[in-house]
Amino acid sequence: MADPTEKVPVRDAQPAAAPDADAALSRGRLVWRRFLRRRLAMVGLATVALLFVAAYLSPQISIWRYDQLDTSAFLSPPSAAHWFGTTQNGFDMFALTMRGMQKSLVIGLLGALISTTLAAVIGAFAGYFGGVLSTALLCLVDLLLVLPGFLIIAILSPSFRGQSWLVFVLLLAAFQWMITARIVRGMTLSLKERDFVHAARFMGVPGRTIIFRHILPNMASLLIIDATINVSSLILAEVGLSFFGFGVQPPDVSLGTLIGDYAGAALTYPWEFYFPAGFLVALVLAINVVGDGLRDALDPNAGVGIRS
Amino acid sequence: MPHVMSAPPLLEVDDLTVTFGSEAGAVRAVRGVSYQISAGEVLGIVGESGSGKTVSSLAVMNLLPPNATVAGAIRFRGTPLTGQSDRDLSKIRGKNISMIFQDPLSALTPVYTVGDQIAEALLVHADDGMSTQAAQTRAIELLALVGIPNPRQRATAFPHEFSGGMRQRVMIAMAIANDPDLIIADEPTTALDVTIQAQILDVLQKAREITGAAVILVTHDLGVIAGFADRVAVMYAGRIVETGAVDDVFYMPRMPYTLGLLGSIPRPDAQGHRPLTPIEGTPPSLVSLPPGCPFAPRCPMRVQACIEDEPALVPMTGSGEAHAAACHRSGEIEARNLKSADVFALPDLPANPADRVPREARAVVLEVRDLVKEFPLMKGTILRRRTGTVHAVDGISFDIREGETLGLVGESGCGKTTAIMEILNLVRPMAGTIAVLGKATASLTDAERFAIRRDLQVVFQDPMASLDPRMPIGDILDEPLRTHAVPAPERTARIRELLGLVGLAPEHANRYPQAFSGGQRQRIGIARALALRPKVLVLDEPVSALDVSIRAGVINLLERLKADLGLSYLFVAHDLSVVRHIANRVAVMYLGRIVEIGNVDDVFDRPAHPYTQALLSAVPLPDPKKERRRRRIVLQGDLPSPSDPPSGCRFRTRCQLFAELDEPRRQRCLEQSPDLAPRTGGADHLDACHYAEPRSVL
Is the terminal CB of chain B with fewer CB neighbours within 10 Å at N or C? Predict the structure, then answer.
């Protein structure tokens, strides 16, 4: 990302810049190799994939559905019939946790996608066109940054009760994109002075096209990392809101509602609390580790790439 | 026979190898380099990027990154430096051996004043308990020595308050602070303008005379070597391929690479038009070197032996004792005294059909009249107010006719880039007019402006930055065609045609820019500019970021395209040698104004303006004998700020002629800004000096 565009690049023989060394390896493969070398990140990636598969395949494996009662087992500890035990009402804890994780994952992924896209588009337009548009967009960013997002969603929560959880995702994303948008704007300001952008401008390519064709692809690494980190922070935001009852509404469940509902049982019936909480920690940790690994792999200055 | 004890040489490097670990494999940056340097001697190490010249000199100082593996012996006055601890080496570094780096901004600590930094260099090595006071006083003396005006005040200034040239002087002051025996200068003038380069080389020469130190001068510029070094070592792919006294290597090169290098550089003093001999191909990858001579794939003289085994450096019998070359056929080159043109095929450049028509009869394709561009200087964040104006371009006029190349030269900050950006933006200028193919930009509608972009295209300086790294070459070349709605089948055909035109293969269309070398990328940039069949090309320093051996190929390509396609060029450059080679006419800019304009031969052979004279005399010639005979006009000081230009003639603050004038005559320079007018005979040779007098300086 940090190509120096200084004048007169005659400094020679930095090992990574050997003329044909990069030619042999494409950038994508190089990043992938660097990523593979981060063992922890690989473990994280495997964990995320595993949790994802588990969340979506579990209805096929488990005989219980998340909204199904087992009237023969109330508050039973983990057993062969109920792997994670049951709740007071006879809900299967495994089915609940998996369903909750599905919801949390979908909210996290969708929210991250929306917020990163929003950040990229708004930041790039503000940076590229400048002037009044930039000032207006920056004012909006500053305004949203000082508003307490959690509180506002909590206050708005009753009015979207009964509507789709998608509204909730949109609201979460709306309070997530601002800082990235500022970073994107800054990067756009420097990218737009690069010669390939000048070249496109001097051949008559309109600004909109330049943004989508040249500017955004060149900060793809930033956006990928940002989206990854957003997934985990959105999951946490969702959990926080749902914990207090402002997020996902019953009968649907998420990891947040589960943790909120069963926090009181942590000491008495621990399976009710520790399974959803444990999965939440594992999920967020794994995603963060992947994000760190991606950052190191994409950033040529991270220093872990080259070993003699 | 009694053994004669001779003093060991000052520095002895014996079979030095440096290897870096990398993703792609081990990078063998230096492969068996040996040289010696005696006290007071100047050794020039010359080579292109990646040849290992910087790495081998950093190895002497043990300043390589931790992923480098160093083998071989380095002895300083007979004491081995390899294998010593960093702490022990620190006693030698900066005291006995000091270093001057290429980029003086990153070599100085930004948070300390330069006086403190020089004093620190003194105090670190002071065994006899030098007082801080004494060190400060000495620092001021040193600053005065390297020609920093007002050293007492300037010693309390921070590095960012100095210009590039002044920072490099500070670096030299620091390097000579402890009276070293050896100074290693790594590209000390590469980032500087040519007149500043002349100043710095002057200071370096003075520093050498005062300390009596030996100097290792690492550079890619053969001209600098010719004027400064006693001996030279030419490096290629991590090895010394030819070494010897400067005269031997420059006048009797015995290795085809040296021959090619000398034949591929344009000369500012070249009369008539001599085509350059390009070296085909690119330097080999240091990761997967071929078994034979690393130059063999590019060498027109290669035989089977060259591909099979690598030649050693062997002494040449017919020239000076230290002259040695690493080539299987150097004996033959010596016996037949082959020159560059004998070894490398001269490219066949077509004659430009436009040359047959007199200039006046050709149509004007680009006309600039009294162009002005100013930038406001603003202060404050909320209440912004204007505190000044940068007069970047202050009324320049020129025209370019069909089939002609105008070279626009000047040092950084003279406004040449601003001028071409104004032209390329195709908007109404702040003042003056720009007309492309007869259409003034001030009155263009959006549709007309879009249409005119087809005729006016641009090639940028930095081939790394001018191509979008995320796009394959095919898409890059397709972009202008797509933008201007060329039908799809035509586009594919045109991309193939364009790749062929600049000497690339059609299958290259699928690769990404990072798969290409600098020279190839620049060819792609040229192909993109040509996609829409423009009439005028603006070339913004198109070869200055390229290595010497690659440069000639791109220059020849530009010349061929101009003749074949009937193009006109606006060639912006700071390298006067290239301009002399490629341009028909030349305009010299200083601080936002054109100070001299005319036919290239007139301006180079009979420069009338003192600035042009100084500029030309500062260009180093790759010719040791001529270089020794020349008297250089060294300009004083730096370029004044364009926000506060001097009254009257803008050049008077640095003018060598002004300094010699008597008071009444000076008054005119102070009060009256000279206008551009023919003063020295030729109606087409204009200059802006009250006391213009042609003078040959090359």
Answer: N
Write the pLDDT tens digit of every residue in A258-270. Answer: 887 887 777 887 7
Asked if B54 has any chain A CB less than 8 Å from its own CB, the reply is yes
Q: Which domains does chain B have, with CATH numbers?
A: 11-229 (3.40.50.300), 239-343 (no CATH), 354-455+532-599 (3.40.50.300)
* pLDDT per residue as tens digits for the range A122-157: 999 999 998 888 888 888 998 988 888 888 888 887
Sheet of B11-20: strands edge to edge?
A: B27-37, B11-20, B68-76, B79-80
Residues of B in contact with A193 (CB under 8 A): none
Question: Per the CB < 8 Å rule, is B453 touching A199?
Answer: no
Q: How distant, in Å, are the alpha carbons of B51, B153, B176, B257, B618 from that of B300?
A: 20, 58, 45, 10, 34
Verify whether the Cβ–Cβ distance B23 to A34 is below 8 Å.
Answer: yes
**Residues near B542 by beta carbon (within 8 Å), at least 6 away in sequence:** B459, B460, B461, B522, B525, B526, B554, B558, B571
- The radius of gyration computed from the CA coordinates of chain B, to the nearest angstrom, equals 27
B22/A16 Cβ within 8 A: yes
Kindly report, residue by residue over B588-642, the tens digit of the pLDDT.
999 999 999 999 988 999 999 999 999 999 888 888 998 888 888 888 878 888 8
Contact at CB, B286 and A21, closer than 8 angstroms: yes
For residue B286, what is the nearest residue in chain A, using CA coordinates? A18
Domain that holds residue A296: 48-58+85-302
Residue A21 has pLDDT above 50, yes or no: no
Residues of A in contact with B68 (CB under 8 A): 15, 308
State the smallest CA–CA distance between residue A221 and chain B in angstroms.
Answer: 12
**A22 contacts chain B (CB < 8 A):** yes
Please tell me if residue B82 touches chain A, with a CB cutoff of 8 Å. no
B103, A11: Cβ pair inside 8 Å?
A: yes
Mean of pLDDT values over A5-20: 34
Are A200 and A214 spatial neighbours (Cβ–Cβ below 8 Å)?
yes
User: For the domain that residue A109 is a member of, what is the CATH number?
Assistant: 1.10.3720.10
Q: Any CB–CB contact under 8 A between B29 and chain A? A: yes
Query: Given phi > 0 = left and psi -120 to 50 = alpha, else beta, which region is A87?
Result: beta
Segment 194-223 of chain A within 8 Å of chain B by CB:
194-196, 198-200, 202-205, 213-214, 217-218, 220
CA–CA separation, B479 and B384 (whole Å): 39
A21 touches chain B (CB under 8 A): yes
Higher pLDDT, A301 or B134: B134
How far is B522 from chain A, CA to nearest CA, in Å? 12
What confidence score (pLDDT) does residue A1 get?
A: 37
Chain B 545-564, CB below 8 Å of chain A: which residues?
Answer: 545
Using the predicted structure, report yes or no on whether residue B381 has a pLDDT greater than 70. Answer: no
**A270 within some domain:** yes
- Chain B residue closest in CA terms to A17: B50
B666-677 average pLDDT score? 89
**Cis peptide before A251, with omega less than 30 degrees from 0?**
yes
Listed residue (B345, B366, B414) closest to B640, CA to CA: B414
pTM assigned to the model: 0.83
Q: Is residue A156 part of a domain?
A: yes
Q: How many domains does chain A have?
A: 1
Across the interface, whether the CB atoms of A205 and B24 are under 8 A apart is answered no
Assess if residue A79 is contained within a domain: no
Summarize pLDDT for B531-557 with one digit per residue, the tens. Answer: 999 999 999 989 888 888 888 889 999
